[in-house]
Amino acid sequence: MKKLKYERPIINKIQSGMPDKFGMSTRVQTISDVEGIPVVNIIKNYGSPTFVLSEQTIRDTYQEAREAFTTRYPKVQFAWSYKTNYLNAVCKIFHSEGSWAEVVSGFEYDKAIDNGVKGAHIIFNGPDKSDEYLAKSIENDSFIHIDHFDEFYSLIRIAAKSSKKAKVAIRVNMDTGIYPQWDRFGFNYENGDAWNVLNKIMLSKDLELVGLHTHIGTYILTPNAYGVAASKLAELAVRVYRKFNYVISYIDMGGGFASKNTLKGAYLPGKDTCPTFDDYAESITNALINSEIQPENLPTLILETGRALIDDAGYLVGTVLANKRLVSSRRATIIDIGVNLLFTSFWYEHEVYPVKEVSEQTEDTTIYGPLCMNIDVIREVIKFPLLQKGDPVIIPRVGAYNMTQWMQFITLRPNIILIDTSKNIHVIREEETNEVFSRQEKLPEHLS
Ligand SMILES: *Cc1c(COP(=O)(O)O)cnc(C)c1O
Fold first, then answer.
1. Average pLDDT, the chain
2. Which residues' Cβ are closer than 6 Å to ligand 1?
3. Which of 82, 91, 99, 102 to mutate to test the pocket of ligand 1 (most atoms within 8 A of CB)?
């Protein structure tokens, strides 16, 4: 029999009443596989760390979301939020399910075109659309969501030169009871800016008003806020109809549905507090069908859901590098996954699990990443068992934003693999090499 590792005995205070009547479990679960593929095999074949995505989970989550809306409302269209995860394989999965593309830059716009999305199925958001891309969007019949008056005037100028009308919507910001209010994007509802720009658009011969858009924030835990927002957009649609006898074809409610991750400082785990797609759908669709919009004029409902559709499909697998005792006597475990890869650890308390069965004894542990930087903390404190150098770990729910906001800081970015619905594994983004970076650099003559 293999000699067991010595673990020093510790005394733990029982935290009864936290966070519910059963107390906080100090027993740590393990996660040994993703979709039946053992984590140890993933690490052996693709390296440590590796990002893992499950195609099945992406499709299941998308279908669940779509069903929540299509069972309540006649015309529904999703548009994949590229910035949430713009790996081509991921975008193509959403497009194959019927999603359009929602982009916020020229880079993302071209990516959508390269992914085979028709121009007329691209929604162009954000405060930064160059003249070149505004012209391109007009030519391609894309939906341009105007963010500010400067953009409106640029568009008037550019559209005048085109033989086509620009298909436009406005982004509207408003008080929905969620604070701080996101008023930096779009035109405000309460102060009249939104109504003002709508009138300007209706009087322009080169712009065609097609929609009303809002994106009230992100990780919104109160579905009712969406009901308030949808009512306000419906009210604008009704005013346009009364004044101009003109029907707006869509209302786009943006993204912002919460994922099951736990926000820092939250009292209860995200998986217990996160509203369901049905909760959000009920709130939004009720606001629209109960509005003054006539049934034959009901707009298409567009949703740009990002994190809630992809977070659960992503995992990071990695390895323990070392353990140490901090001066405070707290245990520290260093793993090879840092904030360079897990950018969302700045606002989420990510769950970290051992992959192999470990001792039942847990103690408060700080989990550090491998970077030479003090802020490289994955978990400030987590009840964690003693793992040894070389032991694998897995972090679930990392599919949203990490693969776009990650940093090439100190080290190279790893492989990303996709497990398809038949459990075949595909590398969908290769690990970076030094060559990737030297290719971009140029040495001045006198230094070479
Ligand atoms: C980021 C973004 C989304 C997606 O937001 P989530 O919170 O990830 O759902 C949708 N629409 C716009 C305009 C965005 O900027």
1. 95
2. 81, 83-84, 102, 104, 125, 215, 218, 254-257, 304-308, 400
3. 102
**pLDDT tens across 266-319, in order?**
888 999 999 999 999 999 999 999 999 999 999 999 999 999 999 999 999 999
Q: Look at residue 28 in the predicted model and tell me its pLDDT.
A: 81
Between the alpha carbon of residue 41 and those of residues 34, 50, 53, 421, the distances in Å are 11, 11, 15, 18
| Predicted local distance difference test score (pLDDT) of residue 24 | 59
Three state DSSP letters for 364-378: EEEEECCCCCCCCEE
Q: Which residues pair with 393 in a beta bridge?
A: 318, 354
Residue 25's pLDDT is what?
61
CA of 65 to the centre of ligand 1 (A): 15
Q: Which atom of ligand 1 is nearest to 220's Cα?
A: 7
CA atoms within 13 A on the CB side of 89: 18
Looking up tokens 């299509």, which residue turns up?
70
Contact 144, 155 (CB under 8 A): yes
Give the separation between CA 289 and CA 74, rounded to whole angstroms: 10
The tokens of 111 are what? Answer: 């990516």
Between CA 318 and CA 345 the distance in angstroms is 15
What per-residue confidence (pLDDT) applies to 21? Answer: 54
> pTM of this prediction?
0.94
**In terms of DSSP bridges, do strands 33-34 and 37-38 run parallel, antiparallel, or are they unpaired?**
antiparallel
Tell me what pLDDT residue 20 has: 57
- Write down the pLDDT at residue 22: 55
34 Cα: distance to centroid of ligand 1 (angstroms): 27
- Dist. CA 218 → ligand 1 center (Å): 7
What are the CA-CA distances from residue 35 to residues 318, 420, 442 (Å)?
Answer: 17, 9, 44
DSSP-based three-state secondary structure for 241 = helix
Query: How far apart are the C-alpha atoms of 172 and 151, rounded to whole Å?
Result: 14
Q: What angle do CA 24, 272, 364 make, to 5 degrees?
A: 30
Domains and CATH numbers, the chain: 33-53+313-438 (2.40.37.10), 55-311 (3.20.20.10)
pLDDT value, residue 266: 87
For residues 129 and 297, give the distance between their C-alpha atoms in angstroms, rounded to a whole number: 31
Q: Is 319 in contact with 327 (CB distance < 8 Å)? A: no
Residue-wise pLDDT tens digits, 183-235: 999 999 999 999 999 999 999 999 999 999 999 999 999 999 999 999 999 99
β-bridge pairing 416-419 and 331-335? unpaired
d(CA 279, CA 69): 10
Specify the residue for token string 């269209």.
77
